[in-house]
Amino acid sequence: MNKAVRDAGRILVIDLLYLGDLLFATPLIRNLRKNHPQARIDMIVNANFFAIIEDNPYLDNVYAYDKDSGLVDSWQFARKLRANSYDLGLNIHGNWRTAMILRLIKPDYSIGFGGKGRGIWLDQELILPKGKHMVDIYLYFLQEVGIEQIDDEGQEIGINEEAKEEMQKFLQQNGVDKEDRLIGLNTGGSWPTKRWTEAGFVELADCLQKEYGAKVIFFGGPGDVERVEAIVSEMETEPIIAAGKTTLKELAALAYYCDLFISGDTGPVHVAASVGTPTIAIFGPSDETKYQPYGKRNQVAKTDLDCRPCGEHQCPLEHHNCMEMIRVKDILERVSVEIDAGE
Questions:
Q1: Do 47 and 172 fall within a single domain?
Q2: Which of 46, 231, 264, 305 is 20 to 30 A from 117, comparing alpha carbons?
Q3: Per the structure, how many domains does the chain have?
Q4: Which domain holds residue 330?
Q5: Tens digits of residue pLDDT in 201-259
Q6: Rounded to an integer, what distance in angstroms lies between the CA atom of residue 34 and that of residue 14?
Q7: pTM above 0.90, yes or no
């Protein structure tokens, strides 16, 4: 093992990516702690997702960085952290912004994913591997710096007890009993091309309630409320609406109470997988090899079109068939598989 890694007493990890990517990093955090039980381990994360990671038991301090910060604010943020005198900095994000911030913080030794010239600010530059899941990419990072004792226990997040109590009340107020089969649906997506059709969600939600005897609950943030309302207005049955009503911590708690969670490739589906809830992820333009929910009881619904995964925010061919050709029947087949596995 690299001496700088082996002897590090103060370690800083930086990752400013999105919610799902942050959860993909939790096995790295856990394994870093297992191999450095006495070290101070801190992390810098995207301020938008700070709440989901701040209670992580393997971190001593979590610092929220606002990605809208200008140069002056970024410099002041870095100067504050420089006072912590880190021995080791780990840039698992690997873009210019994180490279600059870590450079300004000035840990004694820096390791990170480089490329495109960013390696000039690193003491050890790693090349981002291809064809791997993001969890495995982060664990590869640890292996490359000489950490050999790595578990395969998957990603995790702690569930806030206060949030659990609030979500228990929410479910009781909406007539959910412990015996009910609760299925979460998340309709949103950070890109338009990641969103399955509204008509598909209408038919799916009705079918789950009428034919499977489930109670459906719609998840989502404030930006998803209008879409959820449009879907619900077309339904024959009445679901529960949680969209726009939960914090990130409450989202995790509510997902924990679900028996199944169905969503496109977006943060909430990874939250659900992280709390141990089985998932069905609907994949269109993004690469399921790299981004599917991590773990055994997680399924993927996708097409076999040659044009996917394209990774584009708008369909280059202007048809969006990678999502529109996924039928309700395709999702229900996977629902049946999960129900059979759970019984």
A1: no
A2: 46
A3: 2
A4: 161-342
A5: 999 999 999 999 999 999 999 999 999 999 999 999 999 999 999 999 999 999 999 99
A6: 19
A7: yes
